[in-house]
Amino acid sequence: MTDSFLETLLPQLASGAAHTHALGFAFEGLDGDRVRIRVPYRDDLIGDPETGVLAGGLVTTLLDHVGGLAVWVGLGTFRPVATLDLRVDYMRAAAPGRDLLAEARCYRLTRNLAFVRAWAFEDDPTDPVAAAQSAYMVSAEGDHRPGANLKSRTVA
């Protein structure tokens, strides 16, 4: 993996999409093959106004996104990926008023698939709010324009 990818592209991929920017996702760094991002606590991200707990959908989005980043870390480059399967196990409510971190590791890569484990937590990865197991489709190398690699076929 090149320094340019780590220093330039990966942080942009962490927060550059419209939804990740709106949610406040921020690249926190790498520890070996583990990538970490943060979402700062904000009132508009609360799912339960009575308790101040962050929305579950935010946690799912955070885990899915950090999983995609882990795929790119595993590949050592950017290639289009798409989530095929995402299982999230919620273990406890996130602590109100606290930023949420997510960390992920791509533990298996094949030609077209990547398998990732991820977890969300406040301070300690061993005390997760939620954990995820996911699979991503990895686009083949080559032309990544929409439909460029599809073979023409007739549908009756």
Briefly, what is this?
The protein has 156 residues and is α+β, with helices and mostly antiparallel strands. It is built from three helices and eight strands.
Question: Can you lay out the helices and strands and say which pair or pack?
Answer:
Layout: H1 3-15, H2 18-23, E1 26-31, E2 34-39, E3 46-48, E4 53-54, H3 56-75, E5 81-90, E6 100-109, E7 113-121, E8 130-138
Antiparallel strand pairs: 1-2, 2-6, 3-4, 5-8, 6-7, 7-8
Domain Thioesterase: 52-125
GO molecular function, one term: 1,4-dihydroxy-2-naphthoyl-CoA thioesterase activity
InterPro entries: HotDog_dom_sf (IPR029069), PAAI_dom (IPR003736), Thioestr_dom (IPR006683)
Description:
The chain is α+β, with helices and mostly antiparallel strands. It has one domain: Hotdog Thioesterase (Thiol Ester Dehydrase, Chain A). The protein is 25% helix and 35% strand. It contains three helices and eight strands. It has helices spanning 3-15, 18-23, 56-75, and strands spanning 26-31, 34-39, 46-48, 53-54, 81-90, 100-109, 113-121, 130-138. The protein has a six-stranded antiparallel sheet with strand order 1-2-6-7-8-5. Strands 3-4 form a two-stranded antiparallel ribbon. Strand 6 (100-109) and strand 7 (113-121) form a beta hairpin. Helix 1 (3-15) runs antiparallel to helix 3 (56-75). Mean pLDDT is 88; it is low at 143-156. InterPro entries: HotDog_dom_sf, PAAI_dom, Thioestr_dom. This is Thioesterase.
